[in-house]
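Hey, resending since the last one bounced:
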Amino acid sequence: MLSAKSLFQEILDNDESFALFCSIAASGESQGGWENTRIAALVPESERGLAPKITRHGADEDKHGRIFNALIKKRGLEPVPVPPETDYTMLLEKHGIGLAHEKLKGEEPLTVQDIVVYLAHSRVTEQRASEQMELLRRHFSDHPDIGRAVKMISNDEDNHLAYCHEELLRLAHAGHGRAIQRTLRECALAEIRVYRDVSIAVMEHMGRVLGWSGAKSAFLGAGIKTVYGYERTAGWRRMVSLRMPERRDALGGPATTAPEFA
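The structure tokens again:
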């Protein structure tokens, strides 16, 4: 019987598919680390209090990239090139979601509106990351090879999501509510399209590596499209709601270090 657990177990058990999965994840996390580092450097003066939290966010993302690469090395493998069609972070940027990399590569200070865009983009993508890591945590938290990594990354993603809720609510109370809701909706609707396309691309690559039958691939592809249909009609709303989190000041301290995977 096909399930999320059995599918990931299949990926985990095969060296080639495992290296591809971890390489895709490491690339996205490392890219997120760079983006947050640049945003922290360009925060406008009126929002300088956010800079340490953005820096912590970036350090966490960079740490996650190192963890995924360490998991590859632990298996005696090497990272593999990430197929462009599976690069979630870069495809979001290509579709104009979040802050443009050209802007982040410059030295011009960001505006408060830019910070709204950054936080709205992060609130949507961290929702996705938190849900994905919770799924892995539920099924693989006791796994001897990836359990520690899954639990650490899942906890960090929950912190990131809490931070986005809290800071967006602060900015909403400061008068940016309409801009926040508009930006959240735009980000959410674009993200679910990119996530669908990336999911299909990853599934196709994994199918070739693992020798999935045409029927199995078609069934999985239909499932991805069904999820997209739900998210397009109603599911996207979970990505745009804001509520004060139980974890307050979730990024207020220093980043934790990556564990050893020798």
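The chain has eight helices and no strands.

Sorry for the duplicate.
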